[in-house]
């Protein structure tokens, strides 16, 4: 059985990417880490299949990509992004994209756009029990 999440073959690549995050990734991670954004847990450099997402929220299957120059520099970059998007959609993962410039120059707008994808979490009832319908 093949696991598509956090493929062990990509572990060292994911670790390397986490240790060498770009400035825009560092800025966005500041707002996403530690359940800072509406109490949702985000992971950084999370792999799905052979693709590594910059940020991923497993609860709502939302990937966030920060696109640098490599995504726009060549036709191959665009083709790779299209193949990646098809794969993610096939696995019910929605992806939103921002440019490096978006994150650096207008982080408040980026956070607002991400927040629109995050429905309110239902708080647990007192005593940790859920309501039963009779």
List keywords for this structure.
four-stranded mixed sheet; alpha+beta; single chain; about 130 residues
Briefly say what this structure is.
With 134 residues, the chain is an alpha+beta fold. It has helices at residues 11-19, 23-32, 70-73, 75-90, 100-105, 107-115, and strands spanning 43-48, 51-57, 62-67, 94-99. The model has no long low-confidence stretch (mean pLDDT 89).
Provide structural commentary.
The chain is an alpha+beta fold and 134 residues long. The chain has 6 helices and 4 strands, in the order ααβββααβαα. It has a 4-stranded mixed sheet, sandwiched between helices. A hairpin with a 2-residue loop joins β1 and β2 (51-57). The longest helix has 16 residues, at 75-90. The chain is globular. The mean pLDDT is 89.
Topology:
Blueprint: H1 11-19, H2 23-32, E1 43-48, E2 51-57, E3 62-67, H3 70-73, H4 75-90, E4 94-99, H5 100-105, H6 107-115
Parallel strand pairs: 3-4
Antiparallel strand pairs: 1-2, 2-3
